[in-house]
Amino acid sequence: MPAPIRLRELIRTIRTARTQAEEREMIQKECAAIRSSFREEDNTYRCRNVAKLLYMHMLGYPAHFGQLECLKLIASQKFTDKRIGYLGAMLLLDERQDVHLLMTNCIKNDLNHSTQFVQGLALCTLGCMGSSEMCRDLAGEVEKLLKTSNSYLRKKAALCAVHVIRKVPELMEMFLPATKNLLNEKNHGVLHTSVVLLTEMCERSPDMLAHFRKNEKLVPQLVRILKNLIMSGYSPEHDVSGISDPFLQVRILRLLRILGRNDDDSSEAMNDILAQVATNTETSKNVGNAILYETVLTIMDIKSESGLRVLAINILGRFLLNNDKNIRYVALTSLLKTVQTDHNAVQRHRSTIVDCLKDLDVSIKRRAMELSFALVNGNNIRGMMKELLYFLDSCEPEFKADCASGIFLAAEKYAPSKRWHIDTIMRVLTTAGSYVRDDAVPNLIQLITNSVEMHAYTVQRLYKAILGDYSQQPLVQVAAWCIGEYGDLLVSGQCEEEEPIQVTEDEVLDILESVLISNMSTSVTRGYALTAIMKLSTRFTCTVNRIKKVVSIYGSSIDVELQQRAVEYNALFKKYDHMAPTAAPTPASVPQISQAPFLLDGLSSQPLFNDITTGIPSITAYSKNGLKIEFTFERSNTNPSVTVITIQASNSTELDMTDFVFQAAVPKTFQLQLLSPSSSIVPAFNTGTITQVIKVLNPQKQQLRMRIKLTYNHKGSAMQDLAEVNNFPPQSWQ
Amino acid sequence: MIQAILVFNNHGKPRLVRFYQRFPEEIQQQIVRETFHLVLKRDDNICNFLEGGSLIGGSDYKLIYRHYATLYFVFCVDSSESELGILDLIQVFVETLDKCFENVCELDLIFHMDKVHYILQEVVMGGMVLETNMNEIVAQMDAQSRLEKSEGGLSAAPARAVSAVKNINLPEIPRNINIGDLNIKVPNLSQFV
C-alpha cells in the first residue's frame, strides 16, 4: 500500500476544494485511508496519520477513531511520536472516555524519562486533562519534580500541581513542603508559576491562607521580589516595553490582594510597595496600565489607608481620560465596583464619567450609564438629569428601558420640586415612551395623584402630548387616566403653572375615541381610554349623551375586557341616570361616530378611519372580476417605520364570495404582520366588506411594494389571483 | 483561568482551536462559529472586550480578542485573569510565532498547525500562563525541533532518504574504455554534492 500522504499534502489538497461538499468528500477519502493504515499497525507512518487526523478534527470532522492510536504513539520510544501522541490525547481525549486511564502508566514512565522534553510533555498532558484517578496516582511524581533544579521542569510541575489540587483538593497538603523554596528562584518562569500555585492554595483553603500569612512570611518575600523588579533597571530577557516582567508583577499583585484582604498586618506590610508601584509605573504603554490597574484593584480590596485609596481612584480617573478605549472600559468597570464604598472620591470624576455617555462604544456607554445613576444625589440631580435625558434621546434602543427606569428612580429619590418631577416624567414619556416598562405606569399614576397642586398642569401637558401622537402606549395610558380623572380641570382652563389652553369637552372626547379606535393601541390602552371616557360622564356636562353612545358601542366588542367594562358602565348609566329618557342607542343608527372595525360588516364602504397622520390618501390596490380591495393608511409620528394598512374588500357581483383569504408578501427589507380578518365572506352587491389590518415595518424607508394573493369561492368554483400593488402613495412610506 | 484559545481568519475558518475545558465536538464547532460572529460585528475603534456568548461559560467569562491582519486571536477567560494582561499575552504569543516562523503569516499557521500547538503549549498550560519570555520559548522550541529532526521528523525517514538519493549528482562514467588507445581517458571526478 502506498505511503500515506504527508500532512502538508493533505492541507494543500483540502484547500483546493471549492465547496463544502467537495471538502467533505476529500476528508472522507483520507479518513478511509487512515483507518486502513491504522489497521495495518503501521508504526512508521502512525505519527503522520494522527497529525492529519488532528487537522481534520480542527475543521470539525469526527476523529475519535484515532484515540487508541494516540496511546500507541505515546508508548513509542521516539520523541516525535510522543509529541504528536500527547497532543492528540489532549485534543481528542477526556476523562469521560475509559481509554484515558491507559495513559497513566505511560505518563508515569515519561515523568521519569531521561529527556527533559519528554518529561515536559508528560507534565503538560497531566496538567491539561488528567482525571482525579490519574492525579491521585501521579501526584507523588509531580511533587518530586517540583523540587528539581531544572527550571524548565519546575515551572511545568508547578502548574501541573495546580491542576492536581483542583481535581483532588485533599492532596494540597502534600505540596506544601515543596513550596518553601519556590520563591527563592531566579528564573522568572518558575517564579511566575509558583505564584500561581500559591494563589491557588490560598484561594482554596483558609487554613493555607492563614499559614502563609503567619508562618511563611509570604508577604515580605513577595514585596521583596516586586521591589527588585521595579528597581532593577533594564533587564533585556524580561523586558516588555521598558517594564521588567509585567506579567510577574501583575501575578504578585494579585496574590498580595488575596493575602491582604481582611487582614490588617498584611495590608500594612504592603502599603509602601503599592504606593511605589502606583507612582513609579510608566503609563505610556498598555503593560504599564495593566500593572497600574492591578495595583488599583489590590489597593481597593485590602485594608489600605485612605490616602492610598484616593490615589487609586485618581489613577482610575486618569484612565478615564486615556485615549485607549480598553483602558476606559476597565476604569469604568472598576469604578462601578468601588462607587459604593468610596462614593465621595468617585464623585470627583463625575464630569468625566458623564462625558463617557457620549462615547461611541456600546460597552463603555452602558457602564457610564450605570455609574452615572450610582452617582446621582440631591446636589447634582438637575445637572445629571439634563445629561441623562439627553442620553436617553440619543442612545441605542437596548439602553432605553434601563435608562428610563433609572431616571424614574432617581427622580423619585431626589426631585427638587414637584413641577420638575412631573416635567421629567413627561420628558421621558414623550422621548422614550414605548420603552418604558409596564410597571412604571401605575407608579407614575400614583405619583401624579399625590402631587395635588400639579393636577391641572399635568393633565394639560399630557393632553398636549398625545394630541400630536398617540402611539406610545405608556404615555397614552398615563394620559388617558389623567384626562379621565382631571378632565374637568382641563376644560375649565385652570392651569396656574403655564398658559392654560382652550379645550372643549368634544375635543377631549375626540382624542380619547381616536385612541380607542387606533390600531396602534393595545388592549390595555383601550381599557384605560374607555374607563377615562366613562369617568368623564360625571365631570363633563354637555357631552354625556355622546359618552353614553360610545360606551354602549363597546358593549359588543370582541375584546372581552372592553366588552365587560362597557356593559357594566352601561348598566351604571341605566341605573343612575334619571334624566335621559331616550338613553340606549342602537349601534347601527349612529353613523357619525367612527366605528371600530371588528364590529360591523354591514356598513357601506365609507372610509373607516380619520387618518391620524395628516390624511394619507387611500388607494385601490386591486379591482378585478367584481372584487375590489382598498387600502387605507395610518402612520405614527414617533415610530415612522411602522405603517398600518387597513384593507377593505368589497364585492360588486350578484353572488357572495366565500372562504375569502387575503395573503400578502413584501420585499426582504420589510417585515409584515397580518392580523385576523373580520370575516371570510364578501357579501354581494357591495352590501358589506371584509376588513383586515396589516402592519408593515419599513426601517429603511424604502418604497413600499406588495404582492397579494387572493383565494375565494365564487359561483361554485374556486378562484385564485396574484397581483402586485405598486401604487402606494409616497406619504405611506417616506 | 483561560477556558479556550481560538484563532480564525476573517471568514471564520478556524486556524487554531484549543479548549482547556471539555466540550463535545459539535459544541466546540458551534462555539467557534458563535465567537466569530460576535467578533466580526466589532468595529475597530471599540474596546477589545466582549461579554461571552451563550454557549461558552456564563456571566463570569469574557472574550478578549485582537485582530492582526487576516486573523483574529480570541482568548476566553474568567475573572481570575487580568483583562489588560491577557491583551499583552496575546501580543507575546503572536510575537513568539513571529520569531519562530520568521515574519509569520496566515499560511504558516495553516500548514504548520502542529508546530503552532507546540508553541502554544510552551506559553499556556492547562489554561494557565506558563512562560512569557519569548526568547526562552523560542530556545525550547528550537531544542525540541532539533530532537525531532534527528529522528527524521513527522514526515518519517524513508521519504527523505529516497529523495536524497535521487538528488545525488553522480559523475559521468564513460561507457567505452578504449584500452588499445594508450591515451586513457581519465574521468573528471566532480564533487559529491
Automatic annotation (TrEMBL), chain A:
One GO BP: endosome to melanosome transport
Molecular function per GO: GTP-dependent protein binding; kinesin binding; small GTPase binding
Domain GAE span(s) in chain numbering: 614-729
Family: Belongs to the adaptor complexes large subunit family.
UniProt-annotated location(s): Cytoplasm, Perinuclear region; Cytoplasmic vesicle, Clathrin-coated vesicle membrane; Golgi apparatus; Membrane, Clathrin-coated pit
Stored PROSITE patterns: GAE
PANTHER family for the chain: ADAPTIN, ALPHA/GAMMA/EPSILON
First-listed, main subcellular location of the protein, grouped into a coarse class: cytoplasm
UniProt name for this protein: AP-1 complex subunit gamma
Annotated GO CC locations: AP-1 adaptor complex; clathrin-coated pit; cytosol; perinuclear region of cytoplasm; recycling endosome; trans-Golgi network
Source domain of life: Eukaryota
SUPFAM superfamilies membership: ARM repeat, Clathrin adaptor appendage domain
Known function: Subunit of clathrin-associated adaptor protein complex 1 that plays a role in protein sorting in the late-Golgi/trans-Golgi network (TGN) and/or endosomes. The AP complexes mediate both the recruitment of clathrin to membranes and the recognition of sorting signals within the cytosolic tails of transmembrane cargo molecules.
Keywords: Coated pit, Cytoplasm, Cytoplasmic vesicle, Golgi apparatus, Membrane, Protein transport, Transport
Mode of membrane association: Peripheral membrane protein
Gene name per UniProt: AP1G1
From TrEMBL, chain B:
Annotated membrane topology: Peripheral membrane protein
A cellular-component GO term for this protein: cytoplasmic vesicle membrane
Residues of the AP complex mu/sigma subunit domain: 1-145
Family matches, as CDD domains: AP3_sigma
Chief location of this protein within or outside the cell: membrane
Pfam families found in the cross-reference section: Clat_adaptor_s
Family assignment from sequence similarity: Belongs to the adaptor complexes small subunit family.
Record's subunit section: Adaptor protein complex 3 (AP-3) is a heterotetramer composed of two large adaptins (delta-type subunit AP3D1 and beta-type subunit AP3B1 or AP3B2), a medium adaptin (mu-type subunit AP3M1 or AP3M2) and a small adaptin (sigma-type subunit APS1 or AP3S2). AP-3 associates with the BLOC-1 complex. Interacts with AGAP1.
PANTHER family: ADAPTOR COMPLEXES SMALL SUBUNIT FAMILY
Full protein name: Adaptor related protein complex 3 subunit sigma 2
Lineage: Eukaryota, Metazoa, Chordata, Craniata, Vertebrata
